[in-house]
Each structure stands twice: as structure tokens, then as C-alpha cells.
Design goal:
Length: 163
């Protein structure tokens, strides 16, 4: 949905997409640095909390736009989203490396990336049909979806005692 950000936030200015990409890169870089300070014995529940935080940060784009009408304030949303998502990704792959036997590590990473690549076109197709490029609430809807899914999985992890 980011390529449509100029349409979603039309009252600001041209170039919102480029500013969002820059904000995401900066957020990802800061997230990678901060990931080193996060507890290395993260649980699956904490990972889901990080993912929920990333969704909440994406949801902030709509209120930021409605209240401030400033591209710099609006760029905080994708920057913070990327920050939490980077921490999630780094910690997720650290947990996989820690918990999977070295003999099977390549296969496990292959399966993870294959599943991710297979679901990418499905997600693209779904969101291109379900969302209108001119709707200001698109990033809110996507962020809410991420947050709800991560909370559901967090509850399931707690219910079935998955660490």
C-alpha cells in the first residue's frame, strides 16, 4: 500500500512515498541496533507483542494525518512500524538459529522463506481487492490486522503453553 501513499494522504504533498521509504529505512536501522539490547531469551509471546506493537505503530498513521497534516509527523508511523518489525525479525531468526539443530537449519530457513514467498502474492491480491488506494484508513486497517493476528497467536501460545 505504500506506493499509494500519495493518494491516501493527498492533502499533504507529493513525495510522501519517498519520505515513507526513508522513514522505514531509518526505523529499520535503529531497530537493528536496538535489537542487540533486547533480551536474548525471548519467548514466542514476547515476539507476538513486538509484532502487535508494529501493527499499532502502523495504525497511528491515520490519527497522525487527521491531527497534524505534517509529512514529518506522519512519517513517524512507518518509521516506528519498521523499528518494531526489524526487532521482531531479528529476534525471530535468532530464536530459530538457537532452537534448531545445525543439521536442519538450512532446511528450516528454506521452508520459512518458501512459505513467506508463497503467501506474498496472496496478500498482495487480497489487499489490492479489499482496499481502495484513496482510503486514508488503509494503513490503519493493515496495522489493525497485524495487531489482531499477533494477539490471537499470543493468546493461543499462552493457552497451549508454547514458550
Amino acid at each position: 500500500m505504500l506506493p499509494y501513499s500519495n493518494q491516501m494522504f493527498g492533502r499533504i504533498s507529493e513525495g510522501v512515498y519517498g519520505i515513507f521509504l526513508t522513514a522505514e529505512a531509518i526505523g529499520g536501522f535503529i531497530g537493528a541496533i536496538l535489537s542487540g539490547f533486547v533480551n536474548k531469551s525471548l519467548s514466542s509471546k514476547r515476539l507476538m507483542l513486538l509484532l502487535a506493537c508494529s501493527g499499532i505503530m502502523l495504525m497511528l498513521s491515520t490519527p497522525f494525518y487527521s491531527i497534524f497534516h505534517n509529512v514529518i509527523v506522519l512519517a513517524l508511523s512507518p518509521a516506528l512500524f519498521s523499528l518494531f518489525l526489524s526487532i521482531f525479525n531479528i529476534q525471530f531468526f535468532s530464536i530459530v538459529q538457537r532452537d534448531v539443530d545445525n543439521e536442519f537449519l538450512g532446511r528450516v530457513f528454506g521452508i520459512i522463506f518458501t512459505i513467506a514467498i508463497l503467501f506474498m502474492p496472496i496478500g498482495t491480491g487480497f489487499f489490492s481487492v479489499a482496499l481502495n488506494p484513496n482510503n486514508t484508513f488503509n494503513l490503519f486497517i493493515i496495522g489493525a490486522s497485524i495487531t489482531i493476528l499477533s494477539l490471537v497467536f499470543g493468546i493461543l501460545f499462552k493457552k497451549y503453553n508454547i514458550r
